[in-house]
Design brief:
homodimer; about 675 residues; alpha/beta; Rossmann fold; six-stranded parallel beta sheet; 27 helices
């Protein structure tokens, strides 16, 4: 690459972009770890984007109508940190840049959204950024439909690398964005031909522009080092009604000895080579030092949006007071005040009608009363709408012509759906929930983990949550999935036993601000067990005494979801034999763990035999059986010990011995 | 659709294909559950494929050189069962068809490979079939290179639906197959425009032929009900050197009232409608009855390959005795006899040299001695070759021109890699292993579960297995992933502590025939802890006493992987204070569980304080702390309690308190 030609043809641009390059090179070298080549290669694109197109106000990183910038190729984090430092972000200071990848720094190895306001997303697991960006763009369209383009009218820009595009989730994202005609979404592909193992051609020869075009994208191919070409391409992308992909031909580690090699992907730490690169770039400042003229130019870029931001405030102020309050409420992620009363009213009605329905149907009943009072919800399903019961009558369908619709047909794309929901939650102003079969949490897993890590309240509606699914068989029967979800930090896993518990679980899920929720719901009908109206949200305690022992308490049965009814029947059998038996419903372990010791002790006192009943594996239950005042000799489990089978649900419960009689026998064997 | 025109233009074909339709309709109606429409829609394609192209011998479903047929759209399982019954498969009898989806039947809701020899794969989770098919095709190429086309020369045929193509993993599969120019792979796309939620256009408008073409596939578009067009397309697909996709325009539930509707996707159980459909088809036989002429035609189809199969035997018999034995050994999945001696020799050398290396490097050292004696291994990595240490000097690279190469650059496609490896393992004759970062088991998870469910010995080499990964931060640091893998039935999860344990783990993994293995390996260097040569494979016991207490045994430390060294240092601290401390290395919980009670009791006697040390979450450890003669008051854990952070590895171990001093303190707090 002819660096001299590049720098001489656009000398000002060159030095401004090279400020990014120098910071990336210095920070990675100081940390002796990281990824130098990508920020160096994409510095030109980033400079043009930030200085000529990106709508942002560095002094106000939480401006709701800012453009969103998502670094899907998260390993190039120094690109983002350099941009934030250069433009004057208050949190990403020079000290932070110098502390790149050190304990406690905001400048983590990969961008983490909770470490600085201006970091929109946590990226690094490849493909997640581009998949989340679809959710950002959906949220923008939905909010624009709701609050008009005077209040919401911005773009979502993404930098994606070859890795992002090789990950399967990118296809789900591309197809969904194309189908939804998300015209405010612009993806830059860092087309540098290099992956960690070597040239891209080692593992891929996909014609990416053709692939994007096949899903209805506007596609351009440019020299990613030519500022005028970059500028023109962004302008064209914004003008086109389709989502846009700009293939930017770049040189990884441009101007460095490692240019155009897989070595250039990683940490460039050779002092001599780095010095030579800086010399080639025409960069003579000391490490971490930015010449004043360049820094002040960048700070002007950071301040460029201040006027637009103020004008936006003025436009917002012209809305009615109610509309302003509603905008503030939804952007803050606050549930409406009447949510609590609405849930209580539903619970009262349930105590009267005592429906016998599947909890997936219970969930629909709850959504039927919630969705009308929470216009921020956006529902959807990965092609199982009628099975997940996620669509309520009032929602309408979100589509190109109906952006006020609130239901999304995600297609058979569990992973893309989960990631898109994360993007919506991160964008703010909407509250996404989406459904699939619980077993297919497997597909959504990388995004579900990222919801937890990013501290966002995405709601995963996972139906058909056990062998109760029946004939579809072991490929569709979750066995280990409760354990998987419970093992994930910062995740509330609800498995409600009836409609009342389902309502309470939804209330909790919809009032979270930093924790995702998983609702594991049954396919099969379940009786109402909470037959008395209680104002208090009992699920909020995680576990509670559903039915106490009559006479001397000899046994405690712990169960969740569809097995609570089995535990209740087992209790009848045991009580008939004079064995005092308590049933504890444990719809949410995480919330039960959060209760104080005194409460947990009241629910799970030492002494009685304990049997847990759950149509999943035992993994994790020992904490409640043996721990918490329990005793090894007095703890037993009735549930699954391996994969399920294909047969009608009742036959499976019998076959695998998850029955009231088996529970009663287990208790008696330990008395 | 003009059924009369279809039936009159190819009357014989029509009735033969309709035999499939009738069986599917009858079986689903009898089960009152299942998917009628897909078998009805794809019956013409299947009939032409089986009768004119598929190389198979119904009497010999395990003929190694048979063509493979993979029903990626696994919900259409009755298509497969009908074909097997009609062609005379010994296991899928008429009784089995009548017992569709009932407990104990071979005719499960979705095809399960272990229920009948002729069922090649377990499918149902969408996209898995097409992704596994890439592995089948790779295995075929590799074996052809090794044993010549006289012995191995067959095709892999796949039926995929819209769901398969919407799943992201399909993109990974398509791109990998295109890159590898897998010309013996032919995918039929059941292009029926219908998904569960409605028309495909609700959620997708992707031009699928264009998308396949973008990755180098040969693409054709045909009327999927025209037998001559189907025949010609298959012939053209076989003639083309590229992988082929045949877009078959079909009508789901052809001729039924539910034709071309999402209702047609599911179970068609309305008696009148079903009778009307049969009338429209011109089918007058009783339920489950196949007219003799049609059945005998299909049985001739099933017998057509008998001659070819016998000729193949003759060709095999002409190979040298050694070659025949080697072919038999690898197809049977048997490890070579010298594996055991090779591992022992390595262990002897390790006891002498006591290397201090990361276990990912240990793994490479083991592979360096294994790969030369196991020509059936096929290694690879999802673009982390240098980090996963999966490539040894002798392997060569598998590519279009070098099919004898045994290393695959999978690209950034963890899911596609895992599924392809499953396909290879199912094909037989090769033994796949592949690597990525342990955290990205998340991406591979649906395929890892399917390895366990399918009872195949895929080996997942998962490096960078804890916060020891360091600066890349929490997105890349597995915390809950040991729990996730351990929670999965039929999976051996190894976390070796040093090179010797790594060697023993590999020996076990490579001698499995029905269980996948996960090797969780460290990024950071670890000391040799097994300093004495022991002939016995201690890892095979799952857990064992690495260092016993000196003096009175007051504490037992249990640890895995990189934390065993920390436990050993903690033991030194405790012993120095006179606290007799045993260290138990537990590299494989599942194998330890399999030991008899007496052995487990010797390793974990009741009495002493127990502390588990693992740089993951506690989830699951209570079994060993409180269970197995343990006591709640005397069990403690040192490990992670949430997500990690971005910092150098040592700083993280200190920050999260996973240190010898912390372990010693934990012990003393409970004495």
């Amino acid at each position: 690459m002819d660096i001299a030609a590049l720098s001489s043809s656009h000398p000002d641009h060159w030095m401004r972009a090279t400020a990014i390059r120098a910071l990336a090179l210095d920070a990675v070298a100081a940390a002796n770890s990281g990824h130098s080549g990508m920020p160096i290669g994409m510095a030109d694109v980033a400079t043009v984007l930030y200085s000529r197109h990106l709508k942002f106000d560095a002094a106000r990183p939480d401006w709701p109508d800012r453009d969103r910038f998502i670094l899907s190729a998260g390993h190039g984090s120094m690109l983002l940190y350099a941009l934030l430092y250069l433009t004057g972000d208050a949190e990403i200071t020079l000290d932070e840049v110098k502390n790149f990848r050190q304990l406690g720094a905001r400048t983590a190895g990969h961008p983490e959204n909770f470490l600085a306001t201006a970091i929109e997303t946590t990226t690094g697991p490849l493909g997640q950024g581009i998949a989340m960006s679809v959710g950002f763009a959906i949220a923008e369209e939905a909010l624009r439909a709701r609050f008009t383009s005077k209040i919401i009218d911005h773009h979502t820009y993404v930098i994606a690398g070859d890795g992002c595009l090789m990950e399967g989730v990118s296809q789900e994202a591309i197809a969904l964005a194309g189908r939804q005609e998300l015209g405010h979404l612009v993806v830059f592909w860092d087309n540098n031909n290099i992956t960690i193992d070597g040239k891209v051609s080692l593992s891929d020869r996909t014609n990416q522009p053709q692939r994007f075009a096949a899903s209805g994208w506007h596609v351009q191919e440019i020299d990613g080092h030519d500022p005028e070409a970059i500028d023109a391409a962004i302008a064209a992308a914004k003008a086109d009604p389709r989502p846009s992909m700009i293939a930017c031909k770049t040189h990884i580690a441009l101007g460095h000895a490692a240019q155009d090699s897989s070595k250039g992907h990683g940490a460039l730490t050779d002092g001599d080579q780095n010095a030579a690169a800086k010399a080639a770039w025409g960069w003579s400042a000391a490490p971490f030092e930015i010449p004043a003229d360049i820094k002040s130019w960048w700070e002007e870029v950071g301040a460029r949006g201040a006027a637009a931001s103020a004008e936006w405030d003025a436009r917002l102020a012209k809305l009615s007071g109610n509309k302003q309050a509603e905008f503030a409420r939804t952007m803050a992620g606050e549930a409406p005040k009447k949510l609590s009363a609405t849930i209580k009213a539903l619970k009262k009605q349930l105590a009267e009608t005592q429906p016998k329905v599947a909890t997936r149907k219970s969930s629909e009943m709850v959504l039927e009363v919630i969705n009308p009072i929470m216009p921020e919800t956006i529902g959807g399903s990965a092609d199982l709408t009628g099975s997940n019961n996620t669509k309520t009558a009032d929602l309408g369908v979100f589509d190109a012509e109906t952006r006020d619709g609130r239901y999304i047909y995600y297609g058979i794309r569990e992973h893309g759906m989960a990631a898109a929901m994360n993007g919506m939650a991160l964008h703010g102003g909407v509250r996404p929930y989406g459904g699939t079969f619980f077993c297919f949490t497997d597909y959504a897993r990388p995004a579900m983990r990222l919801a937890a890590l990013q501290k966002i309240p995405t709601v995963f509606v996972m139906t058909h949550d056990s062998i109760g699914l029946g004939e579809d068989g072991p490929t569709h029967q979750p066995i280990e999935h409760l354990a998987i979800c419970r093992a994930t930090p910062n995740t509330l896993v609800f498995r409600p036993a009836d409609t009342t518990e389902t309502a309470e679980a939804w209330e909790i899920a919809l009032t979270q601000d930093a924790t995702p929720s998983v609702l594991a719901l049954s396919r099969q009908n379940l009786p109402t067990l909470r037959t008395e109206m209680k104002t208090k949200n009992l699920v909020a305690q995680g576990g509670y005494v559903l039915a106490d022992a009559e006479g001397k308490r000899q046994a405690i049965l712990m169960a969740t979801g569809s097995e609570v009814a089995i535990a209740m029947e087992a209790r009848d059998l045991l009580q008939a034999e004079g064995i005092g038996t308590r049933v504890v419903s444990m719809p949410c372990w995480e919330l039960f763990e959060d209760q104080d010791e005194a409460y947990r002790k009241r629910v799970l006192p030492g002494g009685p035999v304990r049997v847990a009943v759950e149509a999943g594996i035992r993994f994790g239950w020992d904490r409640w059986l043996y721990g918490e005042r329990g005793k090894r000799e007095k703890g037993g489990f009735v549930g699954m010990h391996g994969f399920g089978a294909s047969a009608p649900s009742d036959a499976l419960y019998d076959h695998f011995g998850i029955t009231p009689a088996a529970v009663a026998e287990k208790v008696k064997s330990m008395l």
